[in-house]
Amino acid sequence: MSSSEKSDLSSEEELVQKLAELRLVSARLDVGPEERQDWTQKAQQRVSQYLQDLPNSKVLGDGDQQEIEEAVKAVLPITEEPVSFDTALESFCSSVGDHMLMREGHPNYFAYVPGNSLYPSAIGDFLAAAFNPYALVSYACPAAVQMQHSLIRWVAGLFGYPESCAGNLTSGGTVGNLIAIATARDAKKLKAKDYHRCVVYLSELTHDGIGKVLHTIGMGEAVLRKIPVTERFGMDAEKLDEAIEKDTKEGLIPFAIAATTGTTDVGSVDPIAELADVAEKHGVWLHVDACYGGFFVLCDSVKHLFKGVERADSFTCDPHKGLFVPFGAGLVLVRNWKQLLTSNRRTPVSTLQDRPTFARQLNPEDLTFEQSTHFRAVRVWLPLQVFGVGTFRAALQEKLYLSQYLYHKLKAVPGLFVLEPQLSIVLFRYEGVPEQQQQQGCPAAEVNLRLLAHVCRDGRLFLASTTVLGQTYLRACVLAFRTHREHVDSLVAAVTDGLKQLLG
Amino acid sequence: MSSSEKSDLSSEEELVQKLAELRLVSARLDVGPEERQDWTQKAQQRVSQYLQDLPNSKVLGDGDQQEIEEAVKAVLPITEEPVSFDTALESFCSSVGDHMLMREGHPNYFAYVPGNSLYPSAIGDFLAAAFNPYALVSYACPAAVQMQHSLIRWVAGLFGYPESCAGNLTSGGTVGNLIAIATARDAKKLKAKDYHRCVVYLSELTHDGIGKVLHTIGMGEAVLRKIPVTERFGMDAEKLDEAIEKDTKEGLIPFAIAATTGTTDVGSVDPIAELADVAEKHGVWLHVDACYGGFFVLCDSVKHLFKGVERADSFTCDPHKGLFVPFGAGLVLVRNWKQLLTSNRRTPVSTLQDRPTFARQLNPEDLTFEQSTHFRAVRVWLPLQVFGVGTFRAALQEKLYLSQYLYHKLKAVPGLFVLEPQLSIVLFRYEGVPEQQQQQGCPAAEVNLRLLAHVCRDGRLFLASTTVLGQTYLRACVLAFRTHREHVDSLVAAVTDGLKQLLG
Questions:
Q1: CB within 8 Å: B171 and A374
Q2: Where are the domains of chain A?
Q3: Do A143 and B72 make contact, defined as CB atoms within 8 angstroms?
Q4: ipTM, 2 decimals?
Q5: Which sequence ranges are marked TM in the entry (chains A, B) (predicted)?
């Protein structure tokens, strides 16, 4: 044994000693069966209590400054020493759990697009994280890829998309829209020097997120062309046609139409079949944002509104909206899978080359710009299993009818102007403001905002307002699965009461 | 009562009847307390069994075609009718759970960058989904924002980042890198017409994902300039300086340096302080990708390698690598929060305007291109609480020492050339291939790939290979928290045995 080997051995002995010490500490990360059971049970109990109390708690916190500061402080800081699981759970519950100023999934949440918290999704996330497969390549976990694949196929089938499509689960609609528009950019082989001449066509009611998407994909200089809507609030196909012709003549590059089936503001549906005709005529990419409204395609009463979506080049919808799944579940489809692949496949990897070719399925990592994500499919797949599509169909149909019901009830209130809903968003405003009040500096918009404040005043109901074509409306979006008739009744009562108080 | 009112009422009666029917079905989505408890308990038991069996199961499935097909088929299709929770859980476990061809978090997973499955993260995801706060704006849930905020601050503090920084939790490193480089693009006010003249500087060992990131943000035409590495595999700062000067002279626009602290291939660390000097000299954005290696900053033995990171303009790291969190947890920091805000803030929203101004904290949604994501903070925060930073510190130090230990053990094997690890990746190759064998058409690279196949042959160990500067190596990455000395010993034994078999 040479002296150099001795020195190595001595260093090795030291290492072995240190390793033994560190192992004792680091092995704590490998939580044992009793703790796993105990921790899960405690978390489950707190969640269950929250859900039990939800319908009788406020949907909207009052935002008292001191209370909020205390909640924020209750989030334990990160420290060298551990705390007990009970302490950590208590910190979570007393900060986040008790102080959700907006309680998503509450039956009286009628604002924005309600979030929901399907319980099996929570178990799905638990399973996904605990097993932790790498779900983005078939050769790591083919069944995980298959689960994502079957979800995407199912959604494609709902809209009559062809077998040639491919898609992705995303964190939400914006990333879905981003993937779609980036794919359009690449399919049209646009060069950066021309980005400023590229035109994306929207309607006046298209979600403003599309501008952010363009910015992110490097096309912030592109032209956003707002096309007027018809009286049913859909994009006017004739005016779109004219705009594209005009732009082409002027040397611009019309490259994408961003249509919506279920606008966030009004819940209106663009006439997709007509837009598809225009898109085909001019060779422009047609993208359909169905984030809010897409899953209403399950309902017979409105299925016809989605006609033509199967002709769109790309499509997004949000299971975390229309399927009541918690935040973090979007879905994007591209009609021609080759375009999605071309836009997203990584250049051949020269290193780490032991990636078996397992080409029976497309690998999700080749169809998105993300490389690693959590296994998002389970949180959607598990609820679909344990409830069956029929239950979702019924719940969505109920929301549509509840909106009709709300429409009828509000229309019966003197002075209220109400827009008949196409999907589950009801817009209304009070138009009976006496001239005297208006002259005293209280215009109609102001009265309506006061009415809104009155309805939301005690936190038991949560509505939003919106401005559509220059008019201010109160806006009720019915999309919480816990919302039933009595909740809509309480909304109508609050509006009636509010009007009495304001005008009395 | 007019006839029109009658007709309304009659329609309303019909609606009320339908609503009552649909409610009965849709109310199934609101799972009751007994079911919640039962389902969670069953999911917990299956997870616990998986984790119990993990160390004694194979890390690498054999990928038998029939077995895989059966696993894929075991994923239940989506159907109109529900199945029982037990059936759905069984489907999940027998498809995904039993057929993870690569078992992430297995103590013998030495390939790629090991995934992990810290149990409290799974509970964190469960809590996040079940409570489902909208965690992207303060006025929806200030404590959720605070939890994210405190995580970001903690990471910033580890690297000495100034208070002026801001950041985000992302789905993983790629999205972190995307946000960083898009922020650089916007901070440098680059115009699309100049994208093709923009240069990003990498080293020969920089992860190839950066090309994909550039493509996604619209800069696919930008120039990727590979700078040679020094003998310690770090980017050569002098050569970088020269390249930037040359490019500037030639009319190109050097705009970003993509440095790495912990390359995926070698685990080498770029000399950030030296690169920061060059970046400052030329006014070029310095981005540091610390996805794999970042959290080793917790360890005294390698802390010095991260010197200078505090001077970088942006930075990414992956809790789902260095903190053993399941897939789906990345983090990006931008030194100057205003740049991140400018790059990501949405244009003022004209509709849905009832968003209270609650400006005490930056709203996460203004700091990322995403609009809705799941509440990612809990899966990182909860493990940090219940284990304390000290436990992570010990576990990471153990991985570093295990790599040193592996290095020493392999170096003692005759014929093996071993690279001394900087962090926790050990590269080695057999160099003693007899000339006779080489002449018989079995060059050194081939022998090494056969050795790799031998080591991985029975699925009890999982290594990768890589090609670095033209040489093929076997590559062991030690980053599973369950990996301890005996697992490294078994790796060494398998290599020794493999060599005997191949050369015997």
A1: yes
A2: 133-374
A3: yes
A4: 0.96
A5: none
